[in-house]
Amino acid sequence: MLIISRVLVFLICPVTVFAGINDNPFGGIKSSSMGGMVTSIAFDGSSSYSNPATMTFLKKNYIDVGINYSSPKSIFLMNTGNKYYNSKSNSLPISLFGVYKFTDKVDLGLAINNIFQNNISWDESWAGKYICISNKTDVQNFQPTISYRVNKKFSIGGGLMFTMYHQQVAKALNYESVNGAPIVNYNLKGSALGLNLGLNYNEKKWHLGLSVRTGLNYKNAKGDATFKNVPSSLSANGILPSGSIEATSSIKLPSVISLGAAYELDENWLVTMDLNIYNWSNIDSLKITTTNYENCSFNVKQDLSSSYAIRFGAKYIQSKNLSIRGGFAFDLSPVLDTYVNPAFPDANKFTYTGGLSYQFKKSLTADVYVGYSDIKERKEVKNVNNFNGTFKSNALIGGIGLSYEF
Amino acid sequence: MNFKTCVVIFCLSIVACKPNLDEPRYTSGSASFMRFVAIGDDFGAGYTNGALTLKGQLSAVPNLIAGKFQLAEGGIFTQAFMPEGSGAGVDIVNNILTGSGYLSSYINCQNKSSLMILKNSFDPSNQNWLGAKHYNNYCLPSLKSFQCYSQFTGKSYPVGNLFYHRMASDTGSSGLSSTVLGDAQFLNATFVMVWIGSSDVYNYAFSGGVGEVGGLTTNDITPVDTFQNAINYIFSGLTGAGQSGIVANIPGIEDIPYFNALPYNALKLTSQQATALNATSPAGINFIEGENALVIAVETGGLIRQIKKGEYILNIINADSVICGGWGTPQKPIPANYVLDSVEVSKITSRISIFNSNLKTAANDNGFAFFDFNRFMANLKSGYSFSGISATSNMFYGGAVSLDGFHLTPRGYALAANECVKAINLKYKSNLPLINIVEYSGVVFP
Fold this sequence. Notes:
The structure holds two protein chains of two kinds. By secondary structure, chain A is mainly beta.
């Protein structure tokens, strides 16, 4: 207990501020605690996602389950002097990873995890209601994986990503009823296939990884739009629908190229560095189209450019049972100036993480981490949606996991 | 530090996580917003949906600006509030008092669901005198420039201006009435808004051109020298001690939905209908398949003709009357007093242009900021964008012009107030924040 408390002091107290808006960890709890994602070396079953090639260097079979937590907080100071805070929008996605030694050289893996998340909601009556009241997007991945160890140093791996996209968006429509503006809720689902490919090279104390995940193209996400507060006169004259209507959208998530290196300083210390390159360039708007009612569509102008994230992590083996981890990441925002909007109030982001693993039985390890993303202040003066003011966000993130090895 | 302490710190750090941003410090620049007085007519009063209502007064441009002034040492801004409800309106066309208008759904002559404007009944108690007080907003519906300083507007004269009679500082029993300008002067304003002239021109337009050009009765267009004198009186009464302020001007008729709701070529005919009408039409009138200019009565001699582009039909004639009622054909020409012909239109536009140039000169001479309301209404045709949406001057769906087709909705007034704030910031180097337009309602649908 004493050790744990000291570790907690080490992890938490020196960090001035902790939090990230879409900063859900996409990999396992261990690599999340080291700045987000480690592609050069495998810690457990989550390597089937972070870099499929690395899992064949694991010495055992793994099953890992994790629960992630993210609580983004945003403020918008409008150029009118009004201040708005986002509503509470916590999420708790669960991940499951497994790796199985099929032969000496071939490992089979499975990753079931959340690989993209945007979760923001505002009050229904807030000033940005005609742009966006809430935008909850998540992408669930189901990925069978295989990896092959070519020789003692080098391996390759690949996984087929079956992904499901789910988007729930709400906004107000520019017509007014006696009960306020009509609100439309969109609920859309889609699916797409992708590939997750990796290379891994190990030389003495060095570990190098390259992973490429293809873009995900949800060409035909489908669902419906439902309404409330529609004035009866406007449904009677056909300006607005009287019931729910069909909605479609088309979203592309970027391909991601990751380069990672890890170095063992000594028996106890490991340091890692990763670079992720996100190819966002092909999105020009967040758009949901509604059948027969163009005035009910959702269309937020968006211009995203390719961006990158750079991550640093360290692991210290404190004792046979306890490892301590820490990390830092910088994410460059893909959202260009003048395009910042309440559906995606993104900005450059610094993330600090810390965590530990405690092996309480021979084959069972508990992992925990907390993190804070400090999302930089972003001022819009010539916003494309004519919504000018300053956004500032942060997020508290964290997760707990259980790792079973056999 | 023990474990418990750390847990407490950890919990506090979560609570402290809420991001924060500080508002800038607002300053009045070289102006002083301490005592703000507005003088003018319907637009500055917040007249909306054909009446002066509490809701409209709360979104009156001077009141919205005053709200921003208060962030930079501005004082309180008082108004002679109407009781909550339907307010009081002057129906110039029918010369009666009414309540405010509202939208209602009905089945039109083509058996389709459509929208019509109904009016609340008038509550005479809304005219009651509020007692001997002074206010900050002396923008009064129907007030003409020269009426600002005229005792004939006051309580001793039953004709006067009923909106002034409610709030005049005197009882009206002495035989000498207080004047609007006199009451406005009482407050020793440090900042003045002058937004006068629309009633000087538009009463004539609403009457269908029945009044005189250069007369002083209700439906007349004010003489040029009278208008200029009135402006001089207003400025000499309210400035002279280093006051700052803003002047706003008069909108153009081509930008006002009331005169443009029914286009000149609203008569849509099939080829059979055109042939049938041509068989009975007098010489010079010829109908074709598609859009045709409406037929109007000429003012004298019982003649009829087709209306020309640039002439206007008052919004008393609605689309139903044309589509199903047969109005606008040789058999049922639109009466002359519902039409502004090209001669009347040119009188209106030339007089607006003179008055606006007088107002601009007055603003310059007195070092005031200037809100070009005329340009604002022109821009409102294509619309103003804000917070992801826009508002235009389209009837009903545009959201900025109220049901009377002339005055604005709270949202429209908020947009206008924003332009005033920008003009004031520019002129006096103040840094007042803008008005949050979405907080103000547009047209409310039933």
